[in-house]
Amino acid sequence: MITSQRIRKAVIPAAGLGTRFLPATKAMPKEMLPVVDEPAIQYVVAEASQAGLDDILMITGQNKRSMEDHFDRAPVLEATLRDKGDSKKLEAIQHATNLGDLHYVRQGQALGLGHAVLCGKQHVGHEPFAVLLGDDLIDARDELLTTMMEAQERLGGSVIAVMEVPEESVSAYGVVDAGGHHREPGAQVVPVHRLVEKPPVEEAPSNLAIIGRYVLHPAVFSELERTPPGKGGEIQLTDALQAMAAKAPEEGGGVHAVIFRGRRYDTGDKLSYIKAVVTLAAEREDLGPELRPWLKEFAQSF
Ligand code: G1P
């Protein structure tokens, strides 16, 4: 029998060096780069919180202090805003503090995403948990995490999120073989037979790319402990999940994928980040009405 447990914990790996954004990230974490007026990491924490995950563990590293400060109280700033009667800004800064119960653990060495997740073992314990990668922002209007949590509670094992991407992009992602079931009309949750980390396009089993949301069975921790370095010499979460896919349900095995068809914004490299900021700003009530006509005019100037 598959036993289900309510999922309460989220792990957010945020220890990367952010080299793609140098020199901006020389002395500040890439997670703190603003997406309009909130740091990118706040969107991800808010998404976890929105899905009812109020115990959030961040896996951090050197240079990440400002992230902890961002989610902490700021008494002097709060008092100044209160004295000025600026309740809107006061609310905005307090919002970040109220998103959940945040914990931090440091990765120490950058040995890969699988290793980062393994750093959460002690904190997570023996319950299923979510993993959210900071480079992927999922539009708050499009449901993903709760669908994944429901699927994990129903099916056991682990659940990942995938999205169809153009063929030429597959080598930037973990790619899955879902036996073609995703092409069935209305397919939303499909079993995963095989996962490959960043395959060359000719070896990719499909164009279904893993996007940065996972709901994992805690057995993944012991699997990660045995996972040798893979692509790029790093311990890959995809490799551990490949092993989990072949395991029996009693051992926490089995992997399913939720096919995401909503809006996702990649903030992992410069061009995608700029597109994400412009898209989200253009949709904002306070900025959109002025930004949209300007964008049209600007686009015509090329
Ligand atoms: C990681 C994962 C990869 C996944 C991607 C999603 O790669 O290893 O399987 O497709 O996140 O963003 P990264 O982008 O950190 O290199």
What would you note in describing this structure?
Strands 5-4-1-6-12-8-13-10 form an 8-stranded mixed beta sheet. A two-stranded antiparallel sheet has the order 2-3. It has 2 domains: 9-268, Spore Coat Polysaccharide Biosynthesis Protein SpsA, Chain A; 269-302, no CATH class. It contains 11 helices and 14 strands. The mean pLDDT is 94. The chain has 302 residues and is an alpha/beta fold. The protein starts with 8 loop residues before the first strand and ends with a helix. The protein has helices at 40-50, 65-70, 75-84, 87-97, 113-118, 121-124, 145-155, 220-226, 237-245, 270-283, 288-300, and strands at 9-13, 34-35, 38-39, 55-60, 101-106, 129-132, 136-138, 158-164, 174-177, 189-191, 194-197, 208-216, 255-259, 264-266. 1-O-phosphono-alpha-D-glucopyranose (G1P) is lined by residues 113, 133, 135-136, 173-174, 197, 209-212, 236-238, 268. 1-O-phosphono-alpha-D-glucopyranose binds next to strand 12 and helix 9. It is an enzyme of class 2 (transferase). Belongs to the UDPGP type 2 family.
